[in-house]
Design goal:
about 260 residues; 8 strands; TIM Barrel; alpha/beta
Length: about 260
């Protein structure tokens, strides 16, 4: 890619981020939310490192990845940059990595060793492996429990009626810290229909936070809302918005998992 094309791509990402942040701010004002309580997770799956660097350049530090091998290559590259003795990077400029893909048992060690957050834990076995495999020199892994909020047979996630049992199963684990819930609702074009599953997820979070208030000290996060429905998610209490297309453009060809 020529220098001019690289500069144009960088400008596009900067402009896109500014537009997304404006959407978020406007939605927060509309629904009486504090914009400081809503975080933007830039979904960088299938995107090159140069795009992440462009986003970092304007203060976007949280990135979501679905495909483990691709993510590990990016994480390693940025880690090498951050530890470069001749040109070290300040800790505040290091990306925060969120795993938002499907989790098989053979992936848990790499996830536990390399990510800061995981949004897609939906069973006790995976939670236990992540906890056991989290390195002792790192803080507990920040974890969201994925809920199949629309009870779709093809979607991952714990059933709403089984959520409390999963929390009971996961609470004793010292290598992870439960932070909240995540969901990927069925697509909908109508704003009021978009709000409904987000409202159900928020209600579940409130129920669990009340029931387990003596054990869950920071169960206050809701990972919900993407490019097409972020306003509805904000209206219903989202604290993490997973935005990819509106920042980086259409998804590239899916890499090997």
């Amino acid at each position: 890619m020529t220098i001019n094309k690289l500069q144009a791509a960088e400008n596009d990402i900067h402009n896109n981020l500014a537009q997304v942040k404006t959407r978020i701010r406007d939605a927060c004002l509309r629904f009486n939310r504090d914009p400081a309580q809503v975080s933007l997770l830039a979904v960088s799956k299938t995107k090159p490192r140069s795009m992440i660097e462009s986003a970092l350049g304007v203060g976007q530090f949280d990135f979501g990845e679905n495909y483990l091998q691709e993510a590990l290559e990016k994480i390693t590259a940025f880690r090498d940059i951050s530890t470069n003795q001749t040109n070290p990077v300040a800790p505040a400029q290091i990306p925060h990595w969120h795993y938002i893909g499907a989790i098989q048992s053979n992936k848990t060690r790499s996830i536990a060793e390399n990510f800061d957050w995981v949004h897609t834990v939906s069973n006790g076995k995976v939670a236990r492996r992540l906890s056991d495999q989290r390195p002792s020199h790192l803080p507990p892994l920040e974890v969201m429990l994925q809920v199949n909020i629309d009870a779709e047979p093809t979607k991952a996630g714990v059933a709403a009626e089984d959520l409390a049992d999963l929390i009971i199963d996961v609470l004793p684990l010292s290598g992870i810290r439960l932070r909240g819930l995540m969901a990927i609702p069925s697509p909908a074009a109508d704003f009021e229909i978009q709000r409904q599953p987000f409202a159900r997820l928020h209600a579940l979070q409130d129920q669990c936070a009340t029931r387990f208030q003596n054990d869950l000290q920071c169960f206050d996060q809701l990972s919900m809302g993407m490019t097409g429905d972020l306003e509805a998610a904000i209206a219903e209490g989202a604290t993490w918005l997973r935005i990819g297309t509106a920042i980086f453009g259409a998804r590239e060809q899916q890499p090997p998992i």
